[in-house]
C-alpha cells in the first residue's frame, strides 16, 4: 500500500516515548537494529483493527526522566498522535538517593500535559528486573513505590495503566537478556501483549509468549556477567557517560505499519 492509498486510512497515530525499555533494547534484530514491545504494539494495533497505523518512537536508551520529558514529550505531541505510551524513571531509580516523590510529580505533570491534547495517554510501569540484579532489593523498593503511586495518580486522572512491574511472568530470568536489565525478545512480546490488553485488543495469535525455564546462574556465569555488564555500567557512571550518548530516536517521524494479511 503506497502513501496515497494510506491517506485517511490510519485510525491510530501512536507515539512511544521513554528510555531503553521503550526503544527496544534486548530485542536486537539481525541487521543490528532493535525492535521491542512498542514496535510490536504498533503491529498488533494494525492487525487488530485491520487498518494501517502511523507509528513514531522517540525513546532513547539511558535517558533519565527529566530529559525524556524535556526532549521527547513536546515533539511527540507535535506529531498529533491519538495515543502516547509513556514510561520513564527506571534510570533514575538505578541511581542512589532517587527523589521518588519528584519522579511521581513529574510523571503526573506529563500525564496532565498529554490530557490537554487530543491524545490518549497510556502509562506503563516497566518490567521488574530486580531478581537478577546485584543488590536488587533497593531498586525493587523504589519500583514498588513508583508503581503504587503512579497507579493511584493515574486512576485519579482517568488514565489507563499497563502494570508490567507486578507481572510475575516477566520477573522470571528467561524473560531477560544477558545484561539482566533489558528484556529478551520474549519479554518484549509479553509486554506488548500486556499493552494491547490494556488498550482493549488481543495480541496476534502467532506471538510466542512462553519461554522455557532457565536454571540459576553458576559462579562462572556470575563472573562473566560482572565482567561484561556490571563493570562497564559502573565505568559509565563514574565518567558521566550514558549508553545513549550520540544516539537519536529510531522513528522521530511517523512510519506506516500495515496490517498483516
Over all CA atoms, what is the radius of gyration?
18 Å
| Strand elements, count | 6
Going across the major beta sheet, what is the strand order? 5-4-3-1-2-6
Shape: globular
Estimated structural class: alpha/beta
The helix/strand series, from N terminus to C terminus, equals HEHHEHEHHEHEHHE
Strand content range: 5-15%
Helix proportion range: 40-55%
Averaged pLDDT: 90
Find the CATH superfamily: SGNH hydrolase
| Uncertain regions spanning at least 5 consecutive residues | none
The CATH architecture can be named as 3-Layer(aba) Sandwich
The structural domain count equals 1
For the biggest sheet, the summary is: 6 strands, mixed
Distance between the termini: 12 Å
Total helices: the number is 9
CATH fold-level name? Rossmann fold
- Indicate the CATH class: Alpha Beta
Key features of this structure:
Rossmann fold, 261 residues, alpha/beta, six-stranded mixed beta sheet, 6 strands
Amino acid at each position: 500500500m503506497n502513501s496515497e492509498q494510506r491517506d485517511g486510512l490510519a485510525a491510530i497515530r501512536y507515539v512511544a516515548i521513554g528510555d531503553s525499555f521503550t526503544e527496544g533494547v534486548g530485542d536486537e534484530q539481525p541487521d543490528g537494529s532493535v525492535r521491542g514491545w512498542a514496535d510490536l504494539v504498533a503491529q498488533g494495533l494494525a492487525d487488530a483493527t485491520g487498518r494501517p497505523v502511523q507509528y513514531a518512537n522517540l525513546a532513547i536508551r539511558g535517558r533519565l526522566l527529566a530529559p525524556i520529558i524535556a526532549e521527547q514529550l513536546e515533539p511527540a505531541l507535535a506529531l498529533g498522535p491519538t495515543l502516547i505510551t509513556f514510561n520513564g524513571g527506571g534510570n533514575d531509580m538505578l541511581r542512589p538517593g532517587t527523589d521518588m516523590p519528584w519522579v511521581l510529580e513529574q510523571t503526573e505533570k506529563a500525564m496532565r500535559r498529554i490530557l490537554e491534547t487530543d491524545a490518549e495517554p497510556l502509562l506503563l510501569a516497566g518490567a521488574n528486573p530486580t531478581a537478577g540484579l546485584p543488590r536488587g532489593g533497593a531498586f525493587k523498593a523504589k519500583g514498588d513505590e513508583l508503581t503504587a503511586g503512579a497507579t493511584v495518580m493515574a486512576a485519579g486522572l482517568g488514565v489507563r495503566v499497563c502494570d508490567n512491574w507486578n507481572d510475575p511472568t516477566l520477573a522470571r530470568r528467561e524473560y531477560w537478556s544477558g545484561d539482566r536489565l533489558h528484556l529478551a525478545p520474549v519479554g518484549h512480546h509479553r509486554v506488548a501483549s500486556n499493552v494491547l490488553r490494556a488498550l482493549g485488543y488481543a495480541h496476534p495469535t502467532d506471538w510466542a509468549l512462553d519461554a522455557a525455564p532457565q536454571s540459576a546462574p553458576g559462579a562462572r556465569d556470575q563472573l562473566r556477567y560482572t565482567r561484561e555488564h556490571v563493570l562497564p555500567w559502573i565505568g559509565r557512571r563514574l565518567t558521566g557517560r550514558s549508553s545513549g550518548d550520540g544516539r537519536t530516536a529510531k522513528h522521530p517521524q511517523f512510519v506506516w505499519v500495515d496490517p498483516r494479511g
